[in-house]
Amino acid sequence: MAPRRRPYVRSAMAPSQPPPMLASGPLGWLRRNLFSNWWNSALTLACLYLIYALAAPLVQFALIDAVWQGADREACLPAKGQGAGACWAYIHAKFGQFIYGRYPAAERWRVDLVFLLLAGGLIPVAMPSVPGKRWNVLFLLAVFPVAAYILLFGGWFTLPRVETARWGGLMLTLVVAISGIAASLPLGVLLALGRRSALPAVRLASIVFIEFWRGVPLITVLFMSSVLLPLFLPDGVHFDKLLRALIGVALFSAAYMAEVVRGGLQAIPRGQYEAAMALGLGYWKTMRLIVLPQALKLVIPGIVNTFIGLFKDTTLVLIIGLFDLLGIIQLSFTDPKWASPNQSLTAYLFAAGVYWLFCFGMSRYSLFMERRLNVEQRS
Q1: Helices (H) and strands (E) in the chain, counts
Q2: 3-state DSSP call for residue 241?
Q3: CATH superfamily, region 162-323
Q4: What would the pLDDT profile of 188-236 be if each residue is shown by its tens digit?
């Protein structure tokens, strides 16, 4: 009888080995998310082909065949330039006009200073780790508007006066967008609270306001503010065209913002109100300390979506004679020095990139705030 063989027992732990390449790392991610089955694989390949079909001509036009340097239109003509691609030399020559509009070149430092003040106040507010939020908000709401008005409009402290008719470009786009955003959010909150108020007069007035402004196109609002409103004013009373446009845009956006905020208010459970009543809190303290912080957190995507729509709708001010970024770009087409077959395509591509950059930035910051404020998932 053969001797019984003892089973092998390892006396030391085997060294750990990395996971298979197809289960972890970039290849594992691709396999799990893009090539998990035949349907996902086919859809991924179709999307890649579509991206290539759309991106290849764009890259060819914007980068490979583009003209980067030149003094006039001759450099961007197919026979003279490096191809029939984008004429970035034209963008470089008109860049100052696209940013400042027809603002006097000698006074553009005032616009740059306003941009620096805005960034200096907005960046600390947007960064949660930076202390002194109360002072930053106070600067943005009280100090910055006055300083921006004095610097941009002039007429104070020996600064030459620059009429708003000469404002334009990206500067005007930001003025309209930031003013509309800053005014529409608090007005929208008040209108949302008014629409849910127990007082019939307040509720009816809020409903009428919201439904009226939501039922009228923004282009009509701008026409009314620019053409019809002066007809109803007394003799000798004059409102600046830009101011009328700012008021119209703010009221129009506030109506949409009110419905976004109202959706957040309706999502708050009734128990939150009852708990506040049990603590003896009044209506305004309940809203300020308990209800509104929760409601606004829930509707961050809707709020930012309204802001993005407002930023893009600023292009409509062109119809009342205000040349924003898109308007000043279209105005530059009248310059025969840079008239070329690809002038308009290059200019619109530049405008699209600028608008996309701002809108994408707001969208990414919105996602950041959602992740940070989503306490339920972090706990």
Answers
A1: 18, 2
A2: helix
A3: MetI-like (1.10.3720.10)
A4: 999 999 998 888 999 999 999 999 999 989 888 888 888 777 777 777 7
